[in-house]
Fold this protein.
Amino acid sequence: MVVLVGLDTTGTGKSRPAEQRSDLSSIKKWWRTLGGDGFAVLPPPTRSRYTQSDGHEDAAEMFAARSLSTSTSFAYWHWQSHAAFDRSGGLTGELYVHWGGDHATVAAGLGDGPNGYRVIDNGPQGAFGLDKVTEKDADGLPDPEDTAGVRQFLARLGTPRSRTARAVEHAPLTAAEERWLHDRLRDPAELSGAAGFVTALESRQALTPEETSRLLPSWREEYAGRLTEWPAWAALLDALLRHDHEEVWDTVAVLGPPASDSLGAAPSPRALDVLRGWSLAGHRTAIRAWLHVHRAVHEPDPVRSAGVLAADLTAHDAPDASLNSLFAALGAAITRDWRAARPAADHDAAQAFAALTAVRLATDDDLPRPLRVAAARRADDQVAHVREQAAQHPGGTEAEVLAAADRYEAARDDLLAGTGPDLTGYEGGLGDLYHRYRTLTPADVQWLRDRVADPSTGVQGIAFCLELLLAHGEAGEAELEALLPRWKKELTKQYRTTYTEWRHPLVTLTCLAQDLGHPAAEAMLAWWAKPKPLWKTPVRLLTHLGAPDEAKAAELWDFVVSGEDDNGQLMTWVLLRARLDGTHPLLVAERLIGQRGVREYVLHRALIGVADPAQPLWHYAVDPRSHSWLRRAQEVADDPRLTDAARAIGLKTAREHYAFRYPDQVSPPLTDEQLAAAHAWAEARADRTAAD
């Protein structure tokens, strides 16, 4: 067994024997020996290298500084990966090493790893791992005192051997493994340390009634008021329900809706009552389990069961978001049943069936209208795929599939009139449909305005809707007045928009107030000028886009060339300068190509992002999965007003889009027609040279 202790804190500055080095110092020493033969490594990270995009940008800067070929393969880890080390430099988990270039070259360059560690090759689509070498006994079990060995053992037990439509299956434990795990729980000295053992056992339904009875009071006492912070809480709750423990329902009441999945896995009339109460109270996380348990207790047919639940929600004035969640649960249930009856069906077939299911449900008269509307929204991105696959569709004959698509298209406009996406769900889902709002219909404008005026719309929804209205010139005093009562209490909260196409809603609202010359602008700007809260500092200058002037332009420019981390400041300057000069922002951006102090990767992002000033894209990087970014890149590549250098940036950006590299990762998925059009576009420009 390899034993490595923490960093020396004596302050003597003396070198220590190898066996006393921290993991971090040992790995750094090995790291410094790597490189050569078309392979390079970046220095260990600081907080400025937070993502993989940052790593690739650092690599480009290093290549330029060292005069290395841009085809050099490279490896690095970023600050998020660095969390694998504790404060003493101890390795507490597998260190993920990211890379670029040729996978085989990187694998050869990393080799086996430093002495006492091993490099784990996860293939061309994954990061490499670096972890300690640990010892095991004849049964393959670690020494209980070897934290790294125990962690690796539990990680192996936690990896499912298969996933099916209905369950995740883990490999059975050997007698020695099960005995070893039970031994760890005989008298747990620290509950947090027992979490991995609890999860490993209960994933195989092997926790005993005695163990659950012993763990429950410790859990309640040690994690009082924060029960879900214990990593194994769900596994223990599953065991309590499985053993029908006398105190399980008291525990469920304390946990609340986070216990929904466990109740869904243990259907009963009592579980049904609890889940119904949570669902009617607006806890959407309970709805999927509510449908599952209702089917188990009352009505197996998923459509009829969902109809009953929808009527219950509607009678209690549930919001659209709850009905959307119910539809998502219904679609998932139908697809899961279909897959369970066809265990040989692959993922693509299941996706195709799920798409057809949404198309069919939109016109299913057995469903109440709110669920048909939710189905129509889901089907809107799917019906073209359904038509393309009709002849080979796994959900029916070609004639049946085409008839379902016809029925949907005949009903679509009526169902979707005056509706919009779920503003409370995963923000990436909103980003996926951003391209639909490049132009706004009168119905879109009214829906967006209604959402901004609705007091129940949350921060994310306000950010999305207000950005679209303002960018398209449709935001006015009504929107400002609707949000003024909320801005100090709600909109001054942190809301990270680094990975979205829209800005923080208070940035957008401040810009609107300035453009309108509203008295509230002064109060908002005074708030932005205060030093706290700290979250606003990186985005404060984005408010300069409102009522632009030369002083604001100068302050923005000073920031742009300072080298500070860009959070949209360059794009703001480009859009601001375009407004002041009365010109298209693309013409402003292209003048910056090659200018000292302007980082290339930031400028390239801004150039593509401002291609349509009526809907700029504020994402922190070019999103290679996005329809919006592909279309803008193509437009820049083809814009006759631009220089060859600017058009080459657009062409290179478009060619690197996942439509050409990993088309299955584009979201929403491209149709065959869209994919063919993209390839035809690229082939027609094959003789043009992309910028380096």
